[in-house]
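Why predict the complex rather than its parts? Because the way molecules touch one another can change local conformation, and only a joint prediction can capture that. The input here totals 816 residues.
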Amino acid sequence: MRVTVHRKAHFNAAHRLYNPSWTNEKNDEIFGLCNNINYHGHNYELIVSVTGSIDPETGYVIDMKVLKDLIHTEVELPFDHKNLNLDVPAFKEVNPTAENIVVEIWNRLRAKLSLSLDLEVTLYETPRNFVTCSGS
Amino acid sequence: MRVTVHRKAHFNAAHRLYNPSWTNEKNDEIFGLCNNINYHGHNYELIVSVTGSIDPETGYVIDMKVLKDLIHTEVELPFDHKNLNLDVPAFKEVNPTAENIVVEIWNRLRAKLSLSLDLEVTLYETPRNFVTCSGS
Amino acid sequence: MRVTVHRKAHFNAAHRLYNPSWTNEKNDEIFGLCNNINYHGHNYELIVSVTGSIDPETGYVIDMKVLKDLIHTEVELPFDHKNLNLDVPAFKEVNPTAENIVVEIWNRLRAKLSLSLDLEVTLYETPRNFVTCSGS
Amino acid sequence: MRVTVHRKAHFNAAHRLYNPSWTNEKNDEIFGLCNNINYHGHNYELIVSVTGSIDPETGYVIDMKVLKDLIHTEVELPFDHKNLNLDVPAFKEVNPTAENIVVEIWNRLRAKLSLSLDLEVTLYETPRNFVTCSGS
Amino acid sequence: MRVTVHRKAHFNAAHRLYNPSWTNEKNDEIFGLCNNINYHGHNYELIVSVTGSIDPETGYVIDMKVLKDLIHTEVELPFDHKNLNLDVPAFKEVNPTAENIVVEIWNRLRAKLSLSLDLEVTLYETPRNFVTCSGS
Amino acid sequence: MRVTVHRKAHFNAAHRLYNPSWTNEKNDEIFGLCNNINYHGHNYELIVSVTGSIDPETGYVIDMKVLKDLIHTEVELPFDHKNLNLDVPAFKEVNPTAENIVVEIWNRLRAKLSLSLDLEVTLYETPRNFVTCSGS
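Output of the joint prediction:
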């Protein structure tokens, strides 16, 4: 029987949504206020969900301290109190929508987890807008 | 890779649970206080989840403003500050349980979304009781 | 030194806002959708806050079970799954706005508590609209 | 079409994490503060999710009162205000990690539900750490 | 008897904390990551609390729609999806800490409310850090 | 003008409520399940609220990092993952009710804060039961 463990984390960041190959008018039409040239920002809340078998010796699917440290190194350190467009190389040429951010986080964590574990990441951009990526 | 975007919405409504083909006694036995002939009500909170591929031009699965407006037109306008039994035709002959309401909302939204998108709807009747419909 | 103890409770009810001495037009203008003749409803969440000295024998300001039972008898039983306008005598001639409901709840609880205790009541009509009455 | 109904519940309990076949040093290394010999505790919050078809007579997948009573009998009564290691036989020889607790709860509820219903249980050990078991 | 009505609102903004009369080293020492030259951001959640007497004709202390519109005009329009340092004149020479933002919001709303009403504003910079200003 | 800054923190602990000068019967009657001889536990959530003037150089009432570290040293380190009755000297002879715990926390923090600052502490024992101490 497989069990999923979930860990919450968070980071605060600025961003701006726009497509550099479009005109200003089209960017304003599609991205509205999110296209503010001076940036705006969010408290991003993150739920990382890891599914696997329970280790009979520890009773853990994954040690929550290990998972917490992994999220800290792979997500919080590079993203927290940053400008996603300017400070995070992954978004130099990729629009930092919630969808693209959650895929980037999923890829970073997937690369560090055992293949015996499944991974799903949910990212809240606001309490009303959030996204989920399970890699399928 | 497919990503799910979630949008929260809400409406406040009155309702009453009963089956008109049953006796009053059976309605009271099954529906208890929910069968109050004068109605009671809830703050319904809604999470609409749409799954699809990320559009490489926008970075969106679906424009959240489009989804927000769709929920407003299809759910909030017809349901908010209404008596579900009396004011919403779908519940003239269908008992407005959370289960039946979430199916009605799912059907309304499903009809307006591209077939390339999957849809799941979660409806909170109270913070302790909620239901989910994914159409499968 | 005085300490405040807070207890959460909740009830679900229908209501309608209107002033019977006004025209329909004025009621619609002031109360909008809240004036739906067929009622709408809410999940009312309640925080009852009682301030007093700590009893050195129990370590309690007030036994939380006593407070919970008092809220059940004075608020939940008469208000839960009710139509506030039709089923609660206090609102036969008083408009059941959040303000008037919280005053009614404050008065009911105040009458049952020792005068050595201060009382404040907060009532959430929705997660975004709430009111507080401390009797001063 | 199948619908999932979710019901929240909660219990407060003490526990200690350790493996009796390990040395104290290894227990401290793996379980850290959770290995406090005098126990610590949590407010466990539970979401029980039951999936099935809607009964056309009631509009229910399962009567929420029946589900609430089942959770009370099978989970809240045996677990609430208990020391999981000392008071709950299931954890005499099983480490009461969140993963092992959610499997125990899933097994208890699964045994009492019709086979036409699917079951998933989510258990919050803290607001930041939680686990899910769907029996697959 | 006076009653307080509370209304929640929110805006998303970027900001940077620094004192232009200090060296970079001192700014880094005091403001740490918050001094990122490229800005970071938050989902600011706001609770506006207005205290007054209940109007016996409406049952309202203040019409929630009026309060909602006031918050929209005075706070959400000028602050939402903005860079507080660059786009909001009030913070050209004032450090946009949560404390200074809540005072600015309090002053804006105070100027528009009847003197018979008391005002308190609570501003969440994150779910873990928040500030309150009641003007006293 | 004075502003209040609030910081959330948390600790998980076991406790048992009883009065050693009473009979077992009286302890069971007054404290019920909370008198379980093997202890139970809670996720205690804490809000520490500090009121003072805004420092014009920093824009802070108190540096949130300083407040966070103070709470860590004075509350989280001595209380987290502890048995309050056995591991915390303050509760060797004082019943660890929420009321007595919040007074102990208030006293610990009050001793470390400048007298120009006011202090209030709110302690959630569960999401439904919480207490506040402002030292007056």
